[in-house]
Amino acid sequence: MSKNPKHLIQRNFTWYAxxxxxxxxxxKLGRKREFIQSLKxxxxxxxxxxxxxLIAEWQNxxxxxxxxxxxxxxxxxxxxxxxxxxxxINSETGMSDADYYAEEIGEALDVGFEQQTFxxxxxxxxxxxxxxxxxxxxxxxxxxxxxxxDAKRNIELFTAHxxxxxxxxxxxxxRWVQNETRSKATVGKCKNYLNKYWRYLxxxxxxxxxxxxxxxxxxxxxxxxxxxxxxxxxxxxxxVHTKIKENYQPELEAAxxxxxxxxxxxxxxxxxxxxxxxxxxxxxxxxxxESKTKAGIRTIPIHxxxxxxxxxxxxxxxxxxxxxxxxxxxxKKGKTDFITKRFKRIIRNQCxxxxxxxxxxxxxxxxTKLEAAGVPENIAAxxxxxxxxxxxxxxxxxxxxxxxxxxxxxKVQY
Length: 414
Prior knowledge:
Layout: E1 8-11, E2 14-20, E3 34-38, H1 44-65, H2 71-85, H3 97-108, H4 113-123, H5 134-141, H6 145-161, H7 170-179, H8 184-203, H9 234-246, H10 250-260, H11 266-271, E4 277-280, E5 283-288, E6 298-301, H12 307-316, H13 331-350, H14 361-372, H15 377-384, H16 391-396, H17 402-409
Helix pairs in contact: 2-3, 2-4, 5-6, 6-8, 9-10, 15-17
C-alpha cells in the first residue's frame, strides 16, 4: 500500500486535508488537535491541488497564533509602506515601482489564499496588526531585557483588544480602558508603554503626527487600586524560613537568606556568580552586575550571617552560579520564576500569608530594618539599589563607601 501524500488522509474513498496543531497554540485555535477538512474528491491528484491553499491557510493561522505575522503579511505591509512613500508614478498606469514589484510577487504566489492574503494587506483592505512593529520598537527603545519583555507583553494584550493600527483611535483606546480589570497602576504602566510605542510609530512615519490616542486618556476610578507590598515581620520571617527548610528546597532557602540580608531583587540574586563575590576595600561584597535599573548596579557588603552560606555555595557551585543547579531552559527569567513560584506556594498554602506578602516584599523588609536602625536614606538607597531623590546625593555624589554600607547592613537583624 502506497503512503499517502503529506497532509492528506483518505476516508471512505474521499480525500481530506489534514494538519496537526502544535500544543502551544491549541488554546488559541479552539483547543483542537488538528485541522481537517474534506476535499470532496476521490481523485488523489485533484486532492493534492485542492489541499495546497488550505494547508497554507492553516499554517498561517498557526504562525499568527504564535504572535508572529506571516511572511506574506510582512512582505505586503512593507511594500505598502514603500508605496506610500514613493512619489514616482507611471502616468499611463498610475502605478509606482513598488506597485510593479508587488504585482510580480502576487503573481508568483499560489492562486487562492496566498494571493488573497497578500493583496488584502498590500491594498489596505486588511489593516496593519497593531503589534506589527513591536520588535523594531523594542530594539530601538530598551536595553534592559526584562523591561522589553514587559513592554511587549502589554502591547500584545492591547492588540487582543484592538487588532490593527488603523483601528486604533481615541474611542478604541477608551473602550480598552473601560474593559480593563487590572489595577489602576498596572493599566497606567501599560498605557505608558503604548504611548511610547505610538510615538515610535510617529517618528518612523507609520502613523500621522497629528494625534496620539494614548494621551489625555484618563483611567476610570472604577479600576481597583494596586495592593501595596508589605514588609514581613520578624515572626513571619522565622515562620517562612522554617517552612522552606521543612520542604527541603535548598535553592529557595539560599535565595531567601540572601534576600533578607541584602534587599536584592530575585533577578539580581539568581544572576550572581562565584566571580561576583569580591573583596572591595577589605570588605567581602556581592557585586550586582545585572539589574532592572541603573541604580541597581551596585556592591552590597556581605552580612556576617551570610558569610558561611556564601562560602558553602561558592564551594559547591557546579555551573559558576552562586545558587547552582536551578533547572531551567529560560535563563535568568526561568530561574526567577523557579524561586518566586516555590516561594509563593509556601507563603500562601503553608504560611497562609496575605497577597501583600511576596518575594519582592523582602526588599521592603530590609528597607524597613535599615530605617528602624537609623541608617541615613542615602546609604540605604545605595544598598537597596534605589535612585536618590536629592540633587546633591543623586546627581553629584559618587556614592557611599563600602565601609559605610557594611556598618549599615550589620544592623539588619531578625
